[in-house]
Amino acid sequence: MSQQTTTHENYYVPAQSKWPIVGTVALLTTVFGLGSWFNDLKAGRDEISGPVIFFVGALLIAYMMFGWFGAVVREGRAGLYSAQMNRSFRWGMSWFIFSEVMFFLAFFGVLFYIRYWVGPWLDGEGDKGVSEMLWPNFEYHWPLLNNPDPEIYPPPEGTISPWGLPLINTILLVTSSFTLTWAHHALRKENRKQLKLGLGITVLLGVAFLILQIEEYIHAYTELGLTLGSGIYGATFFMLTGFHGAHVTMGAIILTVMLVRSFRGHFTPEQHFGFEAAAWYWHFVDVVWIGLFVFVYVI
User: Fold this and answer.
1) CATH for the stretch 15-80
2) What is the pLDDT of residues 16-35, one digit of tens each?
3) How far apart are CA 145 and CA 233, in angstroms?
4) Which residue, 136, 147, 128, 125, is CA-closest to 235?
5) Nearest-angstrom CA–CA distance, 100 and 102
6) From 173, 179, 197, 217, which residue has the greatest number of CB atoms within 10 Å?
């Protein structure tokens, strides 16, 4: 009877790191600044305002991500990670994307709750139609261009047509998913030229999306009067599209880092989880935009 030997994988335990506490402080500062900004709160004698605190927190997050991910890249290139560690990375990224899915589902849930329950209730419909006593003359229509109390929430003058910039942005993001997939297949075949070309086109498409999104926001604010203060329609529109825009910005930065690493000769057909994680994130962002295009712009 042959004797079987059992081998165990080595699990890399990193040295003590400052990055978790830096990330915690950065996130706290960013969220506090954003909340202060949205509510127009001031600190001290108006020397420090919400936008300043927010941008300080954003810079801290950038510093943390650059340092922490840089350390992970160096450790991976040094061959310190085992197959078990790679599985841990995949599980971690999977749970992160799941948390992002729930994040956006919460905002979509608010949109649906307002559109299909609260709005009709305020118009006297449904089992809570008695709510119409709050604004007896209110007539519900979505998009909500006639707010119940226009003195508090000035209604916008119109909505953004889905068949202009939103449609172009949809085409850009969907195309970027194809170019990123092309780059991924090129990496698996060790075709460095197509890898760099596909990644470069993907980054350019992402930047083009952000430029058009900014143009759309300028149009909404200056010509339509559509702002965060335009009642529930303005609030849900900018919360959903704004957070998505922040994710596109983050994804474009991540893909730019992947492009730089590609030019430096990083990644192999067998070892390229950093690229895969970036691709997962970008495809997730694309899927969220399709949902936004349908439920925020079209329907």
Assistant:
1) 1.10.287
2) 889 999 999 999 999 999 88
3) 8
4) 147
5) 5
6) 173
